[in-house]
Amino acid sequence: MRLSRNFTLEEFTRSPWADQQGIDNSLDPRRTVHAQIIENLSALVQKVLQPLRDRVGPINVTSGYRTKKLNDDLNGSTTSQHLIGQAADIVPKNPEVSRLDLIEWALWDGLPFDQLICYTYKGHLHFSHRPHPRLELRLSPQPGQYLPTTLEEFKRRCHN
């Protein structure tokens, strides 16, 4: 199922960990609860990720929607926006494009993200979207730690 010209639903439900553990992380659009999650993913893609991709080129979704079981297995936050299809962790596919490039284009274009989290101990960025976005910048220097930050500090710590 296409969410935009460059993103499919399958990119947001695919999980090597879920596959290894036998966790069903699929979404069925005929189920009401799943339809809402797909609507949330579509909004995230249309308003944030597709415009970003149009600027920087291909983006790899490393984590999108997560069932509660998958989120628990990954030690995700109990309030994670991944659980309701409002978040995705991404990296640029082109090695010439840095996390800082993604951040700067998202800010320059005024993309309506809710949270933009830089995982300084990993390598990806977390973008989320909701109807009334907060435009929060956070750093995650270690698992479970999400620190509010200034734009200058965010850029300094997420330069690669």
Provide the spatial order of strands within the biggest beta sheet.
Answer: 1-2-4-3-5-6
Order of helices and strands: HHHEHEHEEEEH
State the shape.
Answer: globular
Rg from Cα: 15 Å
Q: Gap between N and C termini, in Å? A: 33 Å
Proportion in helices: 25-40%
CATH class: Alpha Beta
- Structural class determined from secondary elements: alpha+beta
CATH architecture: 2-Layer Sandwich
The residue-averaged pLDDT reads: 94
**Count of helical segments?**
6
Give a quick summary of the entry.
The protein is an alpha+beta fold.
Note the main attributes of this structure:
single chain, 160 residues, alpha+beta, Muramoyl-pentapeptide Carboxypeptidase, domain 2, 6 helices, 6 strands, globular
What does this structure look like?
With 160 residues, the chain is of the alpha+beta class. It has one domain: Muramoyl-pentapeptide Carboxypeptidase, domain 2. Helices cover 37% and strands 17% of the residues. The chain has six helices and six strands. A six-stranded mixed sheet has the order 1-2-4-3-5-6. A hairpin with a 5-residue loop joins strand 3 and strand 4. Helix 3 crosses helix 5. The longest helix has 25 residues. It starts with 8 loop residues before the first helix and ends with a helix. The mean pLDDT is 94.
Draw up the topology in text.
Elements: H1 9-13, H2 16-21, H3 32-56, E1 59-63, H4 68-73, E2 87-92, H5 99-108, E3 115-119, E4 125-128, E5 136-140, E6 147-148, H6 151-157
Parallel strand pairs: 3-5
Antiparallel strand pairs: 1-2, 2-4, 3-4, 5-6
Helix pairs in contact: 3-5
